[in-house]
Amino acid sequence: MGAFVASPTLTVQPSRGLVDEKFQVVVKNLPPRQEVTLHSLHQSERSDFWEAFGHYVSDGKGTVKVAEDASAGGSYQGTEPMGLLWSMKPVPGSRTGLRLRKKDVRTPMVVQISVYRGHISHGFRETPALACAVAERWYMAPGVRRVDIEEKGVRGTLFLPPGPGPFPGVLDMWGGGGGLVEYRSALLASHGYVSMALEYMTHIMGNSSGNNQLDHQYFNTAFSILRDHPQVCSDRVAILGLSLGSTVALTMAVYSSLIKVGKIRCPLLLIVGEDDQNWPVSESAEDIEKMMMEAGNSHLLTTLSYPGAGHLIEPPYTPHFRSSNFVSIKTKEKVVVLWGGETKAHSHAQEHSWQRTLAFLEQHLYSSGAKSVHSNL
Questions:
Q1: Across the strands, what pairs with 49?
Q2: CA-CA distance, 359 to 371, in Å (whole number)?
Q3: Helix, strand, or coil here: 126?
């Protein structure tokens, strides 16, 4: 009577979780010291396919644990528990200049993870997998509510955590690409903050004369709508900006049409990518630190500076883009913009800075009643 030989199995735990939550990928029942390739595949909302892969060798028991074992090659190397996500790139033959961003936060990012025999780098669709599993990655936790906002000329989306509240609030502003970007706000609400994703580019491009001036009243009105919401603690509201949004955040914090950071009287967190190829962020951070020191308020400033990180420092495990297509909201011209960053260093910066951002918000919004500013320069 022949011996029973179990087939290889692949598990992802948790199979359903938030996008900033680590998962565990484990393959069992392989032959000992078997070379295998772990592969991740995601189809975006625009029907583009993204993939990542790592080369592994099973241990003496025929097991591979991605959180503990090192990848010897592929789209990432070393012990990288989330490398199958942050190293994703468009599959060969895809359109150029793509950037992976979640548009509809009410649905998950679905990732198929497969294991293949041998160390392979292409032909995944044509090669039979030994085992597969599917992971759902959510920006909205169960119970988070999404509410459209069109009030007093302000347009945005409000995300409300489960429960009656009141909760601290975060006004969330993105960059010069325009549009309504919701995924970071949805994730903040999943961590207990009433977050408003603000659409503002139509109000920042200036008047009919073409002067690019900030519409202070628009941003002040948006802040008031958030602050005065019945589920928001009115004295515990933060302003969060990335790229052009950081300029808006700093301007609001100092109540000035020029950014005079010496006037800042609330905690300020700056996140700097030292390989930013889009803005002179390191120099800007040095100027801010100098001005605040001269004004005697440098104790309010925390700066996180990351070598090898580029301009687009987003929530963790988001794929890195050194460059991507960009459409100017003013000219409607499509160009390729260089953001900078090296994939591994940038991805680690995203993970670390997000943890520090949540800690910063908890310290200053849950532990004390104060407005705070967070800015991705």
A1: 43
A2: 15
A3: coil
pLDDT at 152 over 70: yes
Band (pLDDT 50/70/90 cuts) for residue 165 is confident
CATH 2.60.40.2240 fits 9-138, yes or no: yes
Model pTM score: 0.92
Residue 377 confidence (pLDDT) above 60: no
Per-residue tokens: 244:
């052009």
Token reading at 152:
């007093």
What CA–CA distances, in Å, run from 34 to 112, 189, 238, 303, 374?
22, 43, 51, 45, 47
Which CATH superfamily groups domain 145-376? Answer: Alpha/Beta hydrolase fold, catalytic domain (3.40.50.1820)
CA dihedral 16, 19, 22, 26 (to 10 degrees): 50
Peptide bond into 161 cis (omega under 30): no
Q: Where in the chain is the domain with CATH 3.40.50.1820?
A: 145-376
CA 366, 159, 149: angle at the middle one, nearest 5? Answer: 125
222 neighbors 195 (Cβ within 8 angstroms): no
Residue positions annotated with a catalytic role: 243, 276, 311
Please enumerate, as own/partner, the contacts of 69-74 that have beta carbons within 8 Å and a separation of 24 or more: 71/38, 72/119, 73/119, 73/121, 74/37, 74/121
Identity of residue 139: Y
Rounded to whole angstroms, the Cα distance separating 299 from 13 reads 42
Ranges of CATH 2.60.40.2240 domains, the chain: 9-138
Q: Mean pLDDT across the stretch 266-270?
A: 94
Q: Are 53 and 74 in contact (CB under 8 A)?
A: yes
